[in-house]
Amino acid sequence: MSDPTTPTGGRASPATAQASAGTSDEFLLNVGPQHPATHGVLRVVVTMDGEVVKDLQPHLGYVHRGLEKLFENRTYEQIIPFTDRTDYLSAIANNWAYVMAVEKLLGMEVPKKVEYIRVLMAELNRINSHLLWLAAYGLDMGAFTPFLYAFRDREEINTMIEEASGGRLTTNYFRIGGFIHDLPPAFFPRLKKFLGRFGRAVDELDTLLVENAIFVARTRGVGIISRERAISYGMSGPCLRASDAPLDLRREAPYSIYGSLEFEIPAGRNGDTWDRSWVRIEEMRQSLRILRQAMDGFPEGEHRVRAPRNIEPPAGEVYSAVEGPRGEVGFYVVSDGTRKPYRVKMRKPSFSNFSALPEIMRGLKIADLVAVMGSLDLVVPEIDR
Amino acid sequence: MRDTADILAAIRSRFPRVENRPVDPAPSLVVEPEKLREHLLFLRDQLSFHHLVFLTALDRPAESELELVYRLFSYESRLSVMVRFRVPRDAGRVPTVSDLFRTAEWHERETAELFGLEFTGHPDPRRLLLPDDLEGYPLRKDFTHPNMPRLPEVTST
């Protein structure tokens, strides 16, 4: 072990192991902020005894942009594109939670067709996000092939989303009261083709990665968190459902048309890393069911309500949340009756999911860190906001 | 627990004088800061509000106060409830609830640094998101920083 007091000497750069003063076998390992497995600018300092993780200290804030402060000086409409950029993999869910909050403040009802487009977009977005998780997680675990398969399928969804909204990741598609555009004519033929094919593709991805013997060996029984602890940490989404907790806002606090759709809430049994992976695969299958129903029941109508040009909601406050790909995406909006919100608080799933990492990791080996962190499906910009 | 009225009745039977200012359908209880832990413990253990959705603050410079807001959700009754109270803007002290809800630990660290509050009894009161050398509390209404450009005022057209 090199001397940590000489930062330029030997191997004691911040990215490598440093000997800590005190006990003999204990040392600190710094992971990040630039590390392939953190998928973003995230840093954890691991206290290790040999290769066993004794404690883990996350360091956040590298991409803190002060969005909540920015929102206080923007009009209600101007905030929508910022919500995309908190979580670039679920722009739709973030748009939705925010515009739903403002619509609630205004007491605005949106047409049936708007609700259907929102569900279609949200479920496509969910599959899209889970596919990217699968691709990146596969890479973390040393499996390159699933990445290529997942990106092939992602491309189809991105094309559909791009044709509708003009954007691929940061879509900025939602407006208060509906959408900027109606769905393009090519949307449903594309969706039909996708639905006809993607069911088999999920099975393929399932066998390629999640049922793969090496993958199972690395994830089964690793990184367990109980249902009670997961709820106490405020975890939500697939990370919570893996812990034998079939809790999903689409079922627990139904919004939009989810109350009238048929789908199951998959839940794992053990709350381990493998269960968190399996839940996401199963969710893609359920999203396909939802997409089919939304396509079949798609109504005629307007794609938006004519909202007033200047949106000035009455003074009041509201919280609205949707089930995003990573869990509960919530916006708490306080209005003082002007064109700009008094306060917007973003409740983000990755923030709470990540906070459980030290507890999950304690006692595991350092090699499990990548497996556990990947299974939490973190998106760093939404942790830091 | 069937609906919001039942929740309110249960709360009133334990805390008769609690004031309710409803937000959307959820009740919003105005409590005293010293009684915060008692209220949250009752909500968690007796009414099964196990999920602390978020906690945050609102700056009220006119009254020179900070308003604390907690939102809880129950997976059993599928209902929400909010708890709120005010503390002075200068040297505001709030009892920590990070031992009752683990998620509160990070939410409190974030709220403390952004609003300038102290959560008494917090196990790890370091900053969470902000750099160590930043002065001031960004989410207060009067916060300014040399690098913060003044945005053009929005005027009604």
Set out the fold topology:
The complex is a heterodimer of chains A (385) and B (157).
Chain A: E1 18-19, E2 26-31, E3 43-49, E4 52-59, H1 67-71, H2 80-86, H3 91-106, H4 112-140, H5 145-165, E5 174-175, E6 178-179, H6 187-210, H7 213-219, H8 227-232, H9 238-241, H10 249-252, H11 273-296, E7 316-324, E8 327-335, E9 343-347, H12 349-355, H13 357-361, H14 368-375, H15 380-384
Antiparallel strand pairs in A: 1-2, 2-3, 3-4, 5-6, 7-8, 8-9
Helix pairs in contact in A: 2-3, 3-4, 4-5, 4-11, 4-14, 5-6, 6-11
Chain B: H1 4-14, E1 19-20, E2 28-30, H2 36-45, E3 51-60, E4 65-73, E5 80-88, E6 93-95, H3 104-115, E7 118-120
Uncertain runs of chain A: 1-20
**Uncertain runs of chain B with pLDDT below 50, 5 residues or more?**
none
The major sheet of chain A is characterized as: 4 strands, antiparallel
* Percent of sequence in beta strands of chain B: 15-25%
Briefly note the structural class of the backbone of chain A. alpha+beta
Task: Order the strands across the largest sheet of chain B as they lie in space.
Answer: 1-2-5-4-3
Q: What is the CATH homology-level superfamily of the largest domain in chain A?
A: Cytochrome-c3 Hydrogenase, chain B
Gyration radius of chain A, to the nearest Å? 22 Å
CATH fold label of the domain at 4-91 in chain B: Beta Polymerase, domain 2
Shape of chain B: globular
**CATH class label of the domain at 4-91 in chain B:** Alpha Beta
Give the neighbour order of strands across the main sheet of chain A. Answer: 1-2-3-4
Q: How much strand of chain A?
A: 5-15%
H-E string of chain B: HEEHEEEEHE
Overall mean pLDDT score of chain A? 86
